[in-house]
UniProtKB/TrEMBL annotation:
Listed InterPro entries: Acyl_CoA_acyltransferase, BioF2-like_GNAT_dom
Lineage, uppermost ranks: Bacteria, Pseudomonadati, Bacteroidota, Cytophagia, Cytophagales
A Pfam match: Acetyltransf_6
Domain BioF2-like acetyltransferase: 167-308
Official protein name in the record: GNAT family N-acetyltransferase
Length: 546
């Protein structure tokens, strides 16, 4: 057995004879996944070698490669599986199931030879042998093994067809078809994948940023080229659900051993969220996978509600942490307390979904308050005062059409309409809300059918305004107002630079909104007083104080 680090590991990996030996061993290993293939490991090592030090533990018997443990050391001194969070499963590969001695010696070698803080592997597959090393006296107090639910969708075309045929799914499909041509596509052409990947990344970062506060691709510039490389190597299964030319759902998953893994990119458009395009896409994907000879769509470990909705089989996956005795003891205590509290709440009738939602909401609010505290109380009250003019209360104005429409189409601001890339350019520095809170608010409004008009400058979101075709849902005292249909409301103005004269900017933006809604009665909700000015061809009159 030997340990290779850094460039020595890379030199070994790219030896001309190693690829075939490695993949032959991975093919013999019943618990190995696509994330242990030579193509995946070598591509990740090569791209991320400056962020993670390659670490390889190897075993050879009589000149034959019999064991490989592909790892990496992060910048905090932790050993993790090669691939980091892009490798859904991080595990050793061995020639047979009798790998306890290999695992024990490999971990002992790492512990003795490297200045590490610990070892963390998330996740190990259900069928992984050798985990009993944690009962050995040497590791018993240094090891924490945690189980996670692992939902699977077994490829069953008939079951997927029955699910799609249910009334609620059928109605959603029919509603989408009435809006345009609905097509489910498998992408196998490299040029086409290169053409669409930026749109998929935008949808992914927008939703992940809103729900989890993570923008995977914005935060990691190597993630996109890594996926492109995996597609070139034939390791990605890519499908789209399109409405005309609009991508409304997608899945980019790593594939191997007759499995497709929900790991890479999965998205759905906020503009069509009420039709559940993500769920429809997964069901259509289940039909396709059976036709293509795949056996399992791996929904990956976790208890997300949509996974439980789709899963037709469950396994367990493992999270392995090896460290110094005291930190491990603290982790075990924390895990035990969390389980005790969770079980107690469940006994009182609280569901897993409620508990997960409550935890996410607590973290969301915690980050929001930390953001405000970091910038200080003076900043907070100053911003409250400046933001008052863009609130959803104030005066209601109505645009009277006094002339032709041609003049309105000139000298506008050329706003972008419903551009997710622009929303991702929001800068939370100097603002009251975090980026996650901002994106969450935007996502909810878009899912409700509202429209957003944006203007960017120097690669930052400089201005936005919202428009809704349901004014009654926003306007307080709407019962006192005779709102004719069709009508739309322009409201909730955002300015990156506040405290200056934003009147000209706002009037130009309103021109663009009018241009897109010439057949509507247009209302404006704002505290600003410069709406007393006229837009050429139109006149803005106060209607109601809201």
């Amino acid at each position: 057995m030997k340990l290779l680090l850094g460039n020595n590991a890379l030199d070994y990996l790219f030896d001309p004879d190693i690829k075939s030996k490695w993949n032959r061993l991975a093919g013999q290993c019943q618990w190995a996944t696509a994330f242990q293939q030579w193509e995946f490991i070598s591509s990740w090592y090569q791209l991320y070698k400056d962020q993670y030090q390659p670490v390889l533990v190897l075993e050879n018997q009589e000149g034959i490669l019999t064991g490989v443990f592909p790892l990496a050391m992060d910048q905090k001194g932790w050993i993790i599986g090669a691939g980091a969070d892009q490798a859904e499963y991080q595990v050793w590969i061995y020639q047979n199931e009798n790998c306890l001695d290999f695992v024990h010696k490999a971990i002992q070698l790492l512990w003795n030879e490297l200045p590490l803080n610990g070892i963390h592997l998330k996740y190990l597959p259900y069928s992984t042998p050798g985990l009993e090393f944690n009962s050995l006296r040497q590791w018993k107090n240094r090891t924490l093994l945690k189980t996670h639910p692992h939902p699977l969708l077994l490829a069953d075309g008939e079951a997927m067809s029955r699910e799609l045929g249910k009334k609620n799914k059928r109605e959603k499909v029919n509603r989408l078809k009435r809006r345009g041509a609905l097509n489910f596509e498998r992408i196998t052409d490299q040029n086409l994948f290169d053409h669409i990947i930026d749109d998929l990344i935008t949808q992914c970062d927008f939703r992940k940023g809103a729900v989890y506060g993570n923008q995977l691709f914005s935060d990691d510039p190597f993630r996109k080229p890594f996926l492109i490389k995996l597609f070139q190597l034939g390791l990605l299964h890519v499908t789209l659900l399109k409405l005309d030319e609009e991508i409304i759902a997608s899945n980019v998953g790593v594939m191997g051993n007759k499995w497709v893994h929900l790991q890479g990119i999965n998205t759905h458009s906020p503009f069509q969220a009420k039709h559940s395009p993500g769920i429809l896409h997964f069901l259509m994907l289940g039909q396709l996978l059976e036709k293509e000879g795949f056996e399992v769509f791996d929904l990956t470990p976790g208890a997300d509600p949509y996974k439980s909705m789709l899963a037709n089989q469950y396994q367990e996956a493992y999270e392995l942490t090896i460290g110094h005795p005291l930190p491990i003891l603290k982790r075990k205590w924390k895990q035990g307390i969390n389980k005790w509290v969770k079980d107690g709440l469940k006994n009182k009738g609280y569901s897993d979904r409620f508990l997960k939602s409550s935890k996410a909401n607590f973290i969301f609010k915690k980050q929001q308050w930390l953001h405000i505290i970091k910038q200080g109380p003076i900043f907070y009250f100053k911003k409250l005062l400046l933001n008052k003019n863009s609130s959803e209360s104030g005066h209601l104005w109505k645009i009277e059409k006094n002339g032709g429409f041609d003049s309105v189409k000139q000298n506008g601001l050329n706003l972008e309409k419903n551009n997710l890339k622009d929303l991702l350019k929001y800068d939370p520095k100097g603002e009251l809300v975090t980026k996650q809170a901002f994106l969450m608010d935007c996502m909810k409004r878009l899912e409700e059918g509202q429209q957003v008009y944006t203007y960017t400058k120097n690669n930052k979101l400089d201005f936005l305004v919202w428009l809704t075709h349901q004014p009654q849902s926003i306007i307080k005292k709407s019962n006192k107002l005779d709102i004719k249909t069709p009508s739309c409301l322009i409201y909730n103005f955002y300015y990156r630079v506040k405290g200056q004269n934003n009147g000209p900017l706002t009037l130009l933006a309103i021109k663009d909104c009018i241009t897109h809604n010439l057949d509507k009665n247009i209302l404006i909700l704002s505290n600003q007083d410069y709406f007393q000015n006229k837009i050429e061809g139109f006149e803005i009159k106060p209607v109601l104080e809201v």
